[in-house]
Amino acid sequence: MRHLECRAPPAPYAFAMGTLLTDARLVTPKGVLDPGWIQIEGAVIAALGDGAAPPHGSGHDSVNGRWVLPGFIDLHVHGGGGDSMLSADPEEIRDAAAFHALHGTTGLLASVMTAPLDEMITALAAIRDAMRLPGTARSIVLGSHLEGPFLNVRRTGAHDPASLRMPNPVALDRLLESADGTLRSITIAPELPGAFDLIRRAADAGVVVALGHSDADREAAVAAFDAGASLVTHLFNAMSPMDHRRPGLATTALVRPGVVCELINDGVHLHDDSARLAFAAAGPSRIALVTDAIPATGLEDGEHRLGSARVRVAAGVARLAGTETLAGSTLTMDAAVRRAVRRMSLPIGDASIAASATPARVLGLADRRGSLAPGLDADLVVLDDELCVEAVMIGGEWTTSGRLFDR
Questions:
Q1: 104, 136, 254, 288, 385 from 194: Cα distances, Å
Q2: Global model pTM greater than 0.90
Q3: How many angstroms separate the Cα of 384 from the Cα of each of 33, 331, 400?
Q4: How do beta strands 380-383 and 67-70 pair?
């Protein structure tokens, strides 16, 4: 299933390089300003409003009624454009981020999937180093996300079962040391022995703890949230199904105040009605749209690699070769937002919150990113009437594939 593709690939910015955009449909925390204007000074949003823009010395650019949203923030990315986050090469990680930037993602977590521990440690160090490379790309990679190795073997999905481990504080400390302060989230199955101690240890280190790849019942989920977990990895996927008499992780997360649930909104990982149910139960302030994108994202159908596994992509759907097991997605954030609005009929403001404001808050960045508001980073995405990307601004700079990521 293709993801509501646009008629053409994302195009580089075609307007002038002004700092005052007018005649826009601005999606703000206070609603849609139509027409609206937004003024950029340096790397931040200086002001915005509705109606006619105030006089501005350097002139202005009309965006002719296009949508202007805050840049998307993706909490779960394994790669894209042929490049993997499970890499020892910081430039490969930077290039994967560059691919997603062209689809409106102005901040992401580089997800490290389950692999031999030394390989995961090396990947965390490479992500750390990618964040220190010169250029705007370093501001896109906001840190790393460990999806494993502390997962339930019964809910492995595309992860290598041979590399899974029981929760182990020594292993966690090695991972934390390698990331050197850049590990932002970790997925743990809370029903595993020792999981609660590991959750507390990670949370105390400032890491957002997500529950996932799990068979947890309600009691285990509640205890894990009480211990400091606050996020759920791709709700409904790789966890026990909802049961009206025996609620498990999914139900418990949806009714738990403050818990944010990731959704892979591609029409494959979950039915549109299941996504609607999640939004209705939790609201956009507790839903984070994510891609779970793999290196094959943006490439042609065929055979690809995901870590040590062979993946077959057909009609845009990735599965472990020779099986029906989903292996991440080929989704991009612009497609997730398009589907939320055009197929699920969500208000664009709700889709924007789930794609930007909520993940920014999860990462403790709501005072810098995730909304169109004065004083916040000038991270913008310009969409046409079909919600296809026309332009992306990161830190006050319009992006193109050639100039944002100069080596």
A1: 39, 40, 25, 28, 50
A2: yes
A3: 16, 19, 17
A4: antiparallel
